[in-house]
TrEMBL record:
InterPro entries: D-isomer_2-hydroxyacid_DH, D-isomer_2_OHA_DH_cat_dom, D-isomer_DH_CS, D-isomer_DH_NAD-bd, NAD(P)-bd_dom_sf. GO terms for cellular component: cytosol. The keyword NAD applies. Belongs to the D-isomer specific 2-hydroxyacid dehydrogenase family. One of its GO terms (molecular function) is hydroxypyruvate reductase [NAD(P)H] activity. It comes from the Bacteria. This is Hydroxyacid dehydrogenase.
Length: 330
């Protein structure tokens, strides 16, 4: 006998039992894509996804593109809940046009990404990858690194995650520069400067901007050339903000001393995977595969907030504060 409960599709990886139980206890049937628990949903073929979305009212999505065509074909789909804070893969304009709601999990992984950002800064500055590799090969010689303490760190963007990074940097007595279009009138311990000044003066540049048509490749060959020679670049925001080919060239030329990367252009364009893997293989690069927001604690928070957003929209109540990014109900 078919399950009479309204359906919610979950395709994001590492969705936990507590969040699934919340959906079920709220009266919804949970549909999954049948992927391995740690698999990205970005590779789900269109025809398979079409079958999964039949009769679904809410979709908790990870990295899968949500296009106008998908939304138009599934009129029962009322809410798309992105497990995460970036929603560049969701056509928010189409969602508004078609009367749908798009939500994010605001605040779920700010601390996790900030911790990871500091981890990458420290790992690159202290040359942990090189020292670990040498020791594992029986070479006890030391590759001397640099301190984070006392450095000038430039933050491009000043949203929740960047503010959490700035808070952590205060413990390292860093001078913190911020280049951002939206900046509070008084932010303790940070100085708002033009991007050109930030690039020229920072020992570490950390990217925290959203990916838009205007910000794509904001860190290109010219921006890298404008950076202080011997600086390091950290990107835990979005692949596409940095021109990976230009970064590879800057590292090869010695313009930058290293990079800490959690995101790559290859996440959107599989043809760029060899470039991403070549960057990750460099001794002065510490790389992770979009793992910054994937602490156990952050995943649990994000899963539950996404589930709460879906339940709220489908039951006519208010989603958690700050989570709605596109609302086509009006």
């Amino acid at each position: 006998m078919p399950d009479p409960r309204p359906k919610v599709l979950v395709t994001t990886r590492l969705f936990d039992n507590d969040a699934a139980r919340f959906l079920e206890d709220s009266g919804f049937a949970v549909v999954t894509a049948g992927l391995p628990p740690d698999a990205l949903d970005s590779g789900i073929p269109d025809d398979v996804l079409a079958g999964l979305l039949e009769g679904v009212g809410g979709w908790i999505v990870g990295m899968r593109a949500v296009t106008r065509e998908i939304l138009a074909a599934h009129r029962e789909l009322k809410v798309i809940a992105r497990r995460g804070v970036g929603y560049d893969r969701v056509d928010a304009v189409a969602a508004r046009d078609l009367g749908r709601i798009v939500t994010i999990t605001a605040g779920a992984n700010d601390d996790s990404v900030a911790d990871h950002t500091l981890a990458l800064m420290l790992a690159v500055l202290r040359r942990l990858k090189e020292n670990n590799g040498a020791l594992a090969a029986g070479d006890w010689r030391v590759a001397a690194g640099g301190d984070l303490t006392g450095k000038t760190v430039g933050l491009i963007g000043f949203g929740r995650t960047a503010r959490a990074v700035a808070k952590r940097l205060s413990g390292f007595d860093c001078r913190v520069l911020v280049a951002a279009p939206r900046f509070p009138g008084a932010a303790p311990g940070v100085t708002h400067v033009p991007l050109a000044q930030l690039l020229a003066q920072s020992d570490v540049v950390s990217v925290h901007a959203p990916l838009t048509a205007e910000t794509r490749h904001m860190i290109d060959a010219a921006a890298l050339a404008a950076m202080k020679r011997g600086a390091i670049l950290v990107n835990t925001a979005r692949g596409g903000l940095v021109d990976d080919a230009a970064l590879q060239a800057a590292l090869a030329a010695g313009q930058l001393a290293g990079a800490g990367l959690d995101v790559f252009e290859a996440e959107e364009d599989a043809t760029l995977r060899p470039l991403a893997e070549a960057l990750a293989a460099l001794p002065q690069v510490v790389a992770t595969g979009h793992a910054a927001g994937s602490s156990r604690e952050a995943l649990a928070r994000g899963n539950m907030i996404a589930a709460q957003c879906v339940v709220a929209v489908l039951t006519g109540t208010a989603p958690p504060e700050g989570c709605v990014v596109a609302d086509g109900r009006a």
